[in-house]
C-alpha cells in the first residue's frame, strides 16, 4: 500500500526532469566555423568527466554520408574531453557532428554541431545521424531510479530503527524490511539490464543484447550496480538476523557489519552520480554518503515507527519513542549540514537560485524540508509528553508498592492510635484506596479528604498523546516522500554551476535576419490559450528564444512550467532542450543551437497545475 502510493507520487512528481549534469563547454572546431584546412580530429570539452559509447560520434560529410572515423577516446584534457580522429583528406563543404556521451552522474548527454572546410555547402543532404531518446526506455529507467531510492530508505531506515530503537516486537516490521530489500534488489537488476539502451537511446528490446550488456558491466555505473547487488546478497543474512532480535541489544559485531553494509550501499550512489566528478570530489563523496544515510535513517525510520504505532497490539514503550527522537534529531542535523554543502557545490552563485531550473527545484526542496522539520518538531513534542507520562506512571507504581509495606510495618500501633483500622487488616495491608486516605494521618491531625489530582497530565492522557503522535508521524512520512521526490529529480538536473560554465563558453550570436514566430494553442485542465514562440534569427547556429503565454481573452498569462525541445526527424538529431528560463512575464533563453537547416519539430510542453500539462508539436523551418 505504502509502496504503491509513493510510486504514483514519484512517477507524476518526477516526470520530464531528467536533464544530465554534464554540459558541453567547448568544441574544436568551434560550432559554425569555416576552416581553411581540414582538422585532424574533433574534440569536445565538458564541465565534468564523461563516459564514451561505441557510437559516441557520427560525422556526416557534405553529401550526408557518414565518414569512417577512428575509435572515440579521451583527449589531452582527460576524462572531461571526448575526441575522435578524422580521415586524412576531407572534401570542401559543411560537416555535421552528432555526438552522445554519458555524464559522470550516469545520464546520457547528446547534441550536434557543424563546421565547414573551405566554404559552407550550398545545401545539406538529409542523412541518418543515429538514434534519438527513446521515451519508453527513459521512463522505465527513471522509474527504476525512483524505486531504488525509496527501497534504500525503507531497508536502511527500518534496519536502524530495529537495531537502535529496539521495539518490543520487531517481527511486525518483517514486511517492511523485506519490501525494502526485495524492491532494492529488483530495481538494481532492472537498472543493470536497462542501462545499455538507456545510454544509447535505443528501445527497451535492445536490453537483451549480450554485447551491450557486457559493455555495461565495464562502465562505472554498471560496476556500481554490480557492487550493490553483491552487498544486497550479504544484507539478506543481516535482515534474517535482525528479525530474530527481541528487546536485547544487537551484538557489536553485527552492528559493525550492518553499518558497513549501509555505507557500502550509499557509496554505490555516490560513486555513480555527480559527487564523483567536479570540484572537491573526496568531500563531495563523503557528503553524498552521509546525506543518503541520514535521509534513509530518518524517512525509513519514520515509516517503521508509523507501522509500529498502527500495528502494535500493545502500547509502544516510551523509551522506544525517545530513542528514535534522538536518532531523528541527529539525522536532521547531518541532512542540514550536507544539504547546505551540496547546494553550494551545485549552484555556484546566488544568481543561479532564481536563474536556473536547479535553483528553482532547490527552493522547492527547501520549502518541503521546512515543512518536514515543522512536522518533526511536533512529533518530538508528542514524544516528550509520552515520555513524561510514562515516567510519572513508573513513579506511581513505585509508591504503590512501598506505601503498603510501610503501613504494615506500623502494624497494630496505627490501629490503636486511630481506633479505626483492625490489626488484621493492617497486617494484611489495606486496599490501595484506604491506604491513600490513611497515610497522612500518621503525622497527626484529623482525617482529611483525598487530595485533588495533580495538574500535570496523568496516564489517562497517554492515548490522546499517542493518537497525536501517529498523526504527526504520518504527516512527516507524507512530506518526506515529497522531499525524496525532489531529491531524486534534483540529482538528475543540470546544476547551476555547470550551466553557468557552459554559458560562458558559448559562441557569440551572428547576424539578425527576420525572426521565426510560431503560435502554439493549448487547452488543458480548464485552461485555454496560446504560446507565442519567437526564434531569432531562425537560422542554423545560435538562436534566442522568447515564449509568451496568452490567455483565451488575449491577456498575458503565467504558467508554472514551460519546456521546449527541437528534433530533426529526417536526420534523427535531438531532442535538443531549449532550456527555457522564467524571465518574469515570459520564458526565454539565448543558448539554443540548431546545427542544420530543415523542418524541425518543435515540442512545447505547458504545465498549468501540479497535475495538468499538455504537449503540442509544431513544425518550424530553419534555414541555413
Summarize the structure.
Belongs to the CopC family. The protein is α+β, with helices and mostly antiparallel strands and 624 residues long.
Key structural traits:
624 residues, alpha+beta, Immunoglobulin-like, 3 domains, five-stranded antiparallel sheet, four-stranded antiparallel sheet, 15 helices, 17 strands, 48% helix, globular, transmembrane helix, copper ion binding, periplasm, Cu-Rt/internalin_Ig-like, membrane
Question: How would you characterize the overall build of this protein?
Answer:
The protein has 3 domains: 2-117, Sandwich (Immunoglobulin-like), CATH 2.60.40; 135-390 and 462-499; 510-622, Sandwich (Immunoglobulin-like). Helices cover 48% and strands 21% of the residues. The chain is built from 15 helices and 17 strands. A 5-stranded antiparallel beta sheet has the order 9-10-11-15-14, with no helix packed on it. Strands 1-3-6-5 form a 4-stranded antiparallel beta sheet. A 4-stranded mixed beta sheet has the order 2-8-7-4. Helix 1 crosses helix 2 (135-165) and helix 2 runs antiparallel to helix 3. It is globular. The two termini are 56 Å apart.
Proportion of strand residues: 15-25%
Distance between the termini: 56 Å
Residue share in helices? 40-55%
Biggest β-sheet, characterized? 5 strands, antiparallel
Count up the helices. Answer: 15
- State the strand order across the main sheet: 9-10-11-15-14
- Helix/strand/pairing category: alpha+beta
In the predicted model, the low-confidence regions spanning at least 5 consecutive residues are 1-20, 124-130, 397-458, 505-514
Number of domains: 3
Radius of gyration: 33 Å
Shape: globular
Question: Could you tell me the mean pLDDT?
Answer: 75
Amino acid at each position: 500500500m505504502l509502496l504503491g502510493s509513493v510510486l504514483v507520487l514519484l512517477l507524476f512528481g518526477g516526470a520530464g526532469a531528467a536533464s544530465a549534469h554534464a554540459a558541453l563547454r567547448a568544441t574544436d572546431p568551434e560550432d559554425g566555423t569555416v576552416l581553411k584546412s581540414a582538422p585532424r580530429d574533433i574534440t569536445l570539452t565538458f564541465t565534468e568527466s564523461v563516459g564514451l559509447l561505441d557510437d559516441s560520434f557520427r560525422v556526416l560529410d557534405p553529401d550526408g554520408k557518414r565518414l569512417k572515423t577512428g575509435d572515440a577516446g579521451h583527449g589531452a584534457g582527460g576524462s572531461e574531453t571526448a575526441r575522435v580522429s578524422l580521415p586524412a583528406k576531407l572534401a570542401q563543404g559543411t560537416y555535421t557532428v552528432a555526438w552522445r556521451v554519458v555524464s559522470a552522474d550516469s545520464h546520457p548527454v547528446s547534441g550536434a554541431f557543424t563546421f565547414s572546410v573551405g566554404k559552407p555547402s550550398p545545401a545539406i543532404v538529409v542523412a541518418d545521424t543515429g538514434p534519438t531518446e527513446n521515451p519508453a526506455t527513459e521512463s522505465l529507467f527513471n522509474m527504476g531510479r525512483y524505486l531504488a531510492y525509496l527501497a534504500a530508505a525503507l531497508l536502511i531506515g527500518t534496519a536502524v530503527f530495529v537495531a537502535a530503537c529496539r521495539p518490543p516486537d520487531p517481527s511486525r516490521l518483517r514486511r517492511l524490511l523485506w519490501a525494502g530489500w526485495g524492491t532494492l534488489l529488483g530495481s538494481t537488476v532492472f537498472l543493470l539490464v536497462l542501462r545499455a539502451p538507456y545510454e544509447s537511446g535505443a528501445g527497451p528490446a535492445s536490453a537483451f543484447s549480450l554485447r551491450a550488456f557486457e559493455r555495461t558491466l565495464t562502465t562505472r555505473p554498471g560496476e556500481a550496480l554490480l557492487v550493490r547487488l553483491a552487498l544486497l546478497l550479504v544484507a539478506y543474512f543481516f535482515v534474517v538476523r535482525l528479525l530474530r532480535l527481541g528487546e536485547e541489544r544487537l551484538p557489536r559485531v553485527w552492528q559493525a557489519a550492518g553499518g558497513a553494509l549501509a555505507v557500502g550501499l550509499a557509496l554505490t550512489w555516490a560513486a555513480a552520480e555527480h559527487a564523483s566528478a567536479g570540484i572537491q570530489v573526496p568531500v563531495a563523496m563523503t557528503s553524498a554518503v552521509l546525506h543518503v544515510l541520514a535521509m534513509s535513517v530518518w524517512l525509513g525510520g519514520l515509516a517503521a515507527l508509523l507501522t509500529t504505532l498502527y500495528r502494535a497490539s500493545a502500547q509502544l514503550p516510551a523509551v522506544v519513542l525517545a530513542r528514535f527522537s534522538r536518532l531523528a534529531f541527529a539525522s536532521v542535523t547531518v541532512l542540514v549540514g550536507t544539504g547546505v554543502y551540496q547546494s553550494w557545490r551545485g549552484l555556484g552563485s546566488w544568481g543561479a537560485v532564481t536563474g536556473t531550473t536547479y535553483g528553482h527545484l532547490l527552493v522547492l526542496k527547501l520549502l518541503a524540508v521546512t515543512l518536514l522539520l515543522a512536522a518533526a518538531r511536533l512529533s518530538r513534542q508528542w514524544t516528550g509528553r509520552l515520555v513524561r507520562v510514562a515516567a510519572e506512571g513508573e513513579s506511581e507504581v513505585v509508591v504503590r508498592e512501598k506505601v503498603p509495606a510501610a503501613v504494615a510495618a506500623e502494624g497494630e500501633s496505627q490501629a490503636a492510635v486511630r481506633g479505626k483500622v483492625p490489626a488484621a487488616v493492617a497486617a494484611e495491608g489495606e486496599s490501595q484506596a484506604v491506604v491513600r486516605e490513611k497515610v497522612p494521618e500518621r503525622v497527626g491531625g484529623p482525617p482529611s479528604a483525598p487530595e485533588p489530582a495533580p495538574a500535570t497530565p496523568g496516564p489517562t492522557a497517554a492515548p490522546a498523546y499517542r493518537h497525536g503522535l501517529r498523526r504527526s508521524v504520518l504527516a512527516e512520512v507524507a512530506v518526506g516522500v515529497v522531499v525524496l521526490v525532489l531529491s531524486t529529480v534534483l540529482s538528475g538536473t543540470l546544476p547551476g554551476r555547470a550551466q553557468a560554465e557552459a554559458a560562458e563558453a558559448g559562441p557569440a550570436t551572428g547576424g539578425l535576419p527576420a525572426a521565426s514566430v510560431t503560435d502554439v494553442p493549448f487547452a488543458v485542465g480548464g485552461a485555454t490559450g496560446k504560446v507565442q514562440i519567437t526564434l531569432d534569427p531562425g537560422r542554423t547556429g545560435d538562436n534566442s528564444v522568447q515564449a509568451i503565454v496568452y490567455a483565451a481573452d488575449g491577456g498575458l498569462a503565467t504558467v508554472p512550467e514551460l519546456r521546449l525541445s527541437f528534433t530533426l526527424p529526417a536526420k534523427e538529431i535531438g531532442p535538443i532542450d531549449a532550456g527555457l528560463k522564467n524571465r518574469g512575464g515570459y520564458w526565454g533563453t539565448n543558448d539554443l543551437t540548431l546545427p542544420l537547416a530543415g523542418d524541425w519539430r518543435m515540442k512545447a510542453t505547458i504545465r498549468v497545475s501540479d497535475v495538468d500539462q499538455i504537449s503540442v508539436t509544431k513544425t518550424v523551418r530553419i534555414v541555413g
